[in-house]
């Protein structure tokens, strides 16, 4: 998924990954950079990271997807190899107005991956299909 | 997928054309076929049969239209029954059914995964069948287009990894979908990207756009042909490939072809 991002964002996630691995902490300069690159959704995404809201789902076929618990408690399924989130912010800000790279849920998935704090969960192949197609009850 | 499209153009080109132009290495990216839907369907069927004729390649073909016959070009160049058996035709009726069927492609590990996923007529899934001549956009049409496109890309990426793990030469998995823009169909506009909100979304996910544009000139009539279409390849998948080719020695990707559609239904591609 990282190749979908501008180089500056990729570098930022690499820096966060390295620093967090060494110190279990994200320094202020990287937080400011995060806010600068991703705007207001950076803070909301960090909130989701603090709440450990991102789970990587895996099914026996090997298929994976991210599931993010939104602030309202709703579950959003995001893909691992391209940017899509069924949340209203993604539909409006990213798709319709073309004003952002991604929503807070996708950003939270990137951050959790970089920090190594993604929860892991197994689902059946059929459950995975329902989640990917958006037909599973959230 | 562009590599298969290029193979289609070369397979159905005149022998003189093939001698004149050496095969160009083309990016294996997802492609969106843009143009009149019955012609797009014929090109998609040519792509399906061409791909299925390659050893080990399987094809899944999603369409709302029952395929009753193959294009005339294929009836002349009869594909083997074994090739046709490698094409799985699926007929989802709604966007929800299409999403479910594409999402379930990862579920059958025993059979070889498809190397080509084709979706015929995205507009039919995205636009509801409202009464009268004006069709309504599916509720949340842009988000719906993004969901389907992202699911297709993610599925192709997953199946490519599966094909790679099986050490199969049938990878990577490509996607090709056709779309007829409502904006393009209007007589006032010849520029499809002008203001079609769905096309803007599709372009985010499909790296290559293949546009079928009718020739407005009199060459067709003069030559006694039924129709002449211009076929343009564009998009970041093509420009990136061209940039990398500029640095290397390989021939550039042919960006424009001409499609001659004869009165007997035969199709022939020519490099422009």
UniProtKB/TrEMBL annotation, chain A:
<keyword id="KW-0863">Zinc-finger</keyword>
<dbReference type="GO" id="GO:0097196">
    <property type="term" value="C:Shu complex"/>
</dbReference>
<feature type="domain" description="SWIM-type">
    <location>
        <begin position="76"/>
        <end position="114"/>
    </location>
</feature>
<dbReference type="GO" id="GO:0008270">
    <property type="term" value="F:zinc ion binding"/>
</dbReference>
<keyword id="KW-0862">Zinc</keyword>
<protein>
    <recommendedName>
        <fullName>SWIM-type domain-containing protein</fullName>
    </recommendedName>
</protein>
<keyword id="KW-0479">Metal-binding</keyword>
<dbReference type="InterPro" id="IPR007527">
    <property type="entry name" value="Znf_SWIM"/>
</dbReference>
<dbReference type="Pfam" id="PF04434">
    <property type="entry name" value="SWIM"/>
</dbReference>
<dbReference type="GO" id="GO:0000724">
    <property type="term" value="P:double-strand break repair via homologous recombination"/>
</dbReference>
TrEMBL record, chain B:
<dbReference type="GO" id="GO:0003697">
    <property type="term" value="F:single-stranded DNA binding"/>
</dbReference>
<dbReference type="GO" id="GO:0097196">
    <property type="term" value="C:Shu complex"/>
</dbReference>
<dbReference type="GO" id="GO:0000724">
    <property type="term" value="P:double-strand break repair via homologous recombination"/>
</dbReference>
<protein>
    <recommendedName>
        <fullName>ATPase SWSAP1</fullName>
    </recommendedName>
</protein>
């Amino acid at each position: 998924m990282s190749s979908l991002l501008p180089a500056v964002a990729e570098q930022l996630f690499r820096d966060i990954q390295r620093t967090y691995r060494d110190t279990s902490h994200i320094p202020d300069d990287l937080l400011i950079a995060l806010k600068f690159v991703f705007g207001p959704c950076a803070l909301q995404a960090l909130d989701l990271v603090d709440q450990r809201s991102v789970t990587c789902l895996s099914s026996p076929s090997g298929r994976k997807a991210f599931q993010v618990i939104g602030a309202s408690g709703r579950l959003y399924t995001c893909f691992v190899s391209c940017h899509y989130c069924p949340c209203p912010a993604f539909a409006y800000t990213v798709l319709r107005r073309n004003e952002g790279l991604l929503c807070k849920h996708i950003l939270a998935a990137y951050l959790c991956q970089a920090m190594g704090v993604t929860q892991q969960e197994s689902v059946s192949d059929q459950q995975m299909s329902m989640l990917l197609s958006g037909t599973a009850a959230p | 997928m562009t590599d298969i499209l290029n193979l289609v153009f070369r397979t159905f080109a005149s022998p003189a054309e093939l001698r004149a132009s050496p095969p160009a290495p083309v990016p294996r990216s997802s492609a969106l076929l843009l143009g009149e839907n019955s012609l797009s369907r014929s090109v998609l069927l040519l792509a399906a049969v061409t791909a299925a004729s390659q050893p080990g390649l399987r094809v899944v073909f999603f369409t709302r239209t029952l395929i009753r016959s193959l294009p005339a070009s294929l009836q002349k160049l009869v594909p083997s029954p074994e090739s046709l058996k490698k094409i799985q035709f699926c007929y989802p009726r709604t966007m929800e059914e299409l999403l479910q069927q594409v999402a379930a492609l990862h579920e059958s590990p025993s059979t070889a995964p498809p190397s080509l996923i084709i979706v015929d007529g995205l507009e039919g899934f995205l636009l509801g069948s409202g009464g009268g001549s004006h069709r309504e956009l599916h509720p949340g049409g842009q988000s719906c287009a993004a969901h389907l496109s992202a699911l297709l890309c993610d599925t192709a990426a997953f199946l490519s990894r599966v094909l790679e793990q099986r050490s199969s030469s049938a990878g990577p998995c490509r996607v090709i979908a056709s779309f007829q823009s409502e904006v393009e169909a209007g007589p006032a506009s010849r520029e499809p990207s002008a203001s079609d909100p769905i096309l803007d979304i599709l372009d985010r996910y499909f790296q290559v756009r293949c546009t079928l544009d009718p020739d407005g000139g009199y060459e067709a009539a003069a030559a006694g042909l039924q129709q002449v279409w211009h076929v343009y390849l564009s998009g970041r998948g093509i420009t990136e490939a061209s940039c990398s080719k500029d640095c290397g020695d390989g021939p550039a990707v042919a960006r424009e072809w001409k499609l001659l559609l004869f009165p007997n239904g035969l199709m022939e591609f020519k490099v422009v």
